[in-house]
Amino acid sequence: MSDAQALRLALVPGEPAGIGPELCVRLAQRPRDYHLTVFGAATTLRDAAAKLDLPLTLTASPGAAPRPGELALIEIPNAVQSLPGTPDPRNAAAVIEALTRAADGCLRGDFDGLVTGPVHKAVINEGGIAYTGTTELLAAQAGREVVMMLANDIVRVALATTHLPLRAVPDAISIDGLQRVLRILHRSMHADFGIPDPVIAVLGLNPHAGEAGHLGHEEIEVIEPTLAALRDEGMQLIGPLPADTAFLPGKLRGFDAVLAMYHDQGLPVLKYSGFEQAVNITLGLPYPRVAVDHGTALDLAGKGIADPSSLFAAVETCARMVVSRRARLGTD
Ligand SMILES: NC(=O)C1=CN([C@@H]2O[C@H](COP(=O)(O)OP(=O)(O)OC[C@H]3O[C@@H](n4cnc5c(N)ncnc54)[C@H](O)[C@@H]3O)[C@@H](O)[C@H]2O)C=CC1
Ligand SMILES: NCC(=O)COP(=O)(O)O
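== 4-hydroxythreonine-4-phosphate dehydrogenase ==
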């Protein structure tokens, strides 16, 4: 990653009682040629390092050369001491402050990209903060429309809707909205992944993509007109495809990305095909943001057995995206 010599990445561990802090300590041990600044509580990170019996030096600012075992820290203290496996809603404000301050740093240009650990949605809401997900939080903060996409080496799955009750999904899918999602996805395939003319498969909403209107009308009334309009602009769009067979390996090889209509239509396939190395990317922000694909794993927190692969992949993906954007868009 020689182009990434000067990269400055902001890192947010997420829920302090989850596996995020210990994964950050493991990440800190890796040799790297980019700077990492973590936004969180020193006590939580030091406790995690002590439990893992790994060295951790927290510094006020990144040193000249990144050193294994060392992280620059922007201190965001927790309201109360965090205990692995037992989240405390009183720490919700600190979790959100860490995310928003790190994102602010990216918006200001102090950092080139943002990497985030898992956040417990219910705990944040129990702490009195309305929160559906970090994707939505960062979009509102940046004033941008965004698309959530999860990716591993096998498949990229973008979502037309994100954290919504299933009952609300059909009403949230419109021609205008789908067009905006597909434009963001198309643009990002080029800017972030170097694919200038991506082939995007679009799933139907209903079983068998609506079975010619006998099992639902959204394909005929919303999805097909959207695809027709964007095909006229030159986009390569396939679909609407029945979701149950769109992910067959032979078909997937022909697609650069798949657009699913809702969270649990696409993500189980992605996670089944490779949970460990998968990452969650927010497309459409002014800076690259990449998160782990997994949640807080409270059942594993503090035991030292959580797999850090997704966080490692998130940092590597974020660094590659920064380099790709610089090459294609300038500094954006
Ligand atoms: N990126 C984020 O901020 C995400 C946050 N979440 C949130 O996390 C919370 C818990 O969600 P769950 O549905 O229980 O999903 P989860 O991913 O925390 O756990 C599901 C299963 O996967 C295992 N697992 C997760 N990460 C692992 C790792 N790194 N190594 C080994 N095993 C691992 C857990 O032990 C558990 O058995 C929820 O509040 C959810 O909203 C969920 C997904 C992503
Ligand atoms: N399923 C993805 C997830 O829950 C994490 O999303 P976000 O908090 O990064 O928006």
